[in-house]
Amino acid sequence: MVKHKLLTLSFSLVFMTTLYGEWRKLDFPTIESLWHVRFVNADTGWVLGEEYLYKTIDGGLTWKVQLSSLGKGILYVKGEDTIFLTNFNYHKEKKSDGILRSTDSGKTWSVVCCSPDYITKFDFVDENIGFAGGSNGDFHPLVKKTVDGGRTWRTICSDFPESEYEIEGISFINPDIGWAVTYAGQVYKTLDGGTNWALLTNFSSNVREAVRDIEFVNENRGMVIGGIAGQGKVWTTEDGGETWQSHNSLAKGSSMNELQFVDKNTCWSVGYGMFSDHSITHSQDFGSRWIGEAASIDGLVPALQDGFTSLSMISYDLGYFLTNVRPNYAGAIYKYI
User: Fold this and answer.
1) What residues contact 205, with CB distance under 8 A and at least 6 apart?
2) Residue 4, pLDDT above cutoff 50
């Protein structure tokens, strides 16, 4: 476990007001790409960049560098003290540095899983039981599980019938019942805590789909998002995944990447949306209609923006969003209040 020196960074703010809320651009002091954001409350959160992991305790007014970043990856925040971090390097012989865990709010870190697997999503159902979905280095899907709060992890399933590519999203509502979706659009369900998975549907059975995330708010109601080449896709279910309804209310040019629910009806999503207002979008009726927000942000040039990479909603009217801007893919963070 290695301790790292902390560097405090100060920021200026740019204010923008929309019909639904106000946007503030946090003037990030580096030009590195920003990949993932997670907040545990209105004030405390983390941003994973290409070079460093940053933390704020004042809602983004100041930040501290906590760790030299491992490159592109994801975060999971389980309370103010416990954080998980993992990365994946496509072009390196060692694809991943494993799963890192901090129990002191990011001051020190230890490797709790050293296998070089590609983890795309974490989900905890209580203090001890959590799941991680992804693939091995050859993109064959797998699910890992912890029963001790993330101290140790083991692969509990790598057998997914008719599977193609990695698991992109995973969502559990209790220790037994959960769903997973692959990049190619196969949706699976488990009833025994992830040991066995049954194929529910395949969105790519007729036309190839690129699927990015899945979220369930209870044992019946869930949503899958995705899309590629500007063709945003949304599917919803009201019966636990047995049947799905497709929604086509997104503007062309949007490819949805990450999804978060605020309640059982209200959700936000971000994605790759050049020339589209729906690179940031939200729905208040469980995906039937979507309201684009990107056009409301002053100074945002869609032709130069490489979409939004991540979001973290704290409540109905408070959230944080990351984007990278061409030509150098410099990261920027926006706060919605």
Assistant:
1) none
2) no
